[in-house]
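Hi there,

I know you've been waiting on this one. I reran it after we fixed the sequence typo, so this is the corrected version. Both the input and the resulting structure follow.
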Amino acid sequence: MSTRTARRTRLFAATTVALAALSLTACESGDGSDTGAAAPSSSAPAGGSSEQPPAGGKESGNATEANGSKGTNGSAGASGAKDSSGADSSGSGSSGSSGSAGKSTGGTDDNSDLPGKCSATDVKITATKVSRPLNHLLLTATNTGSKTCMLPPYPAARFGEAQSVPPVAQATKPQSLTGVEPGKSGYAGVLLSSGDGSGENGYETDTLTIPFEDGSIATVTLPAGGVYVDTALTVTYWQTDMDAALAH
């Protein structure tokens, strides 16, 4: 082989290698171009993702919101229904209580016909001196009103300027308070003084007042000349019978 031919052979070989290299580079460049072209396509959804949540995320969000709203509404609805039921029940209970209270009040009204306490405005008290027993005074309380009333247990008689009321004879206590119908009377006896002179601090008086439980006071006219009282002064309980009032 001549030297010229050898050079041509080497040049051809070098050219072939260069072409092969260029071809390889072109293939690599083509793959990179395809990859690069795919990248924008792949990045588009990513860009969209920054503006709007992915379809799955949005559905998940909606589902969460929907579930949250539904749960809240459901709870509110249940709570409302319960409250409403509670209110109705409470209302029924209140109505029941009111009904009971009304019934109880009605019972009290039904008892309004029971006798009330007597007052000095509807009872007139007179004092009469009797011959037997000695030194006794008979008090008569006549109902001048239109309804039956109950006298106090006994007359808290105050003679003159006395600072205290006389004691009551316990042996004369009746089983119940004395009630007087309109026009009817109750009776009480008063031992003015001791018959044997054993009483002390005696004095004469012509005034007698008897208070009632409602605060009213009856002024009683005493027999002419007044009466004499001492420490033996005692009263009886109010009685329905005159003899029982003078028995002590």
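Quick highlight: Residues 55-110 form the longest helix (56 residues).

Best,
R. S.
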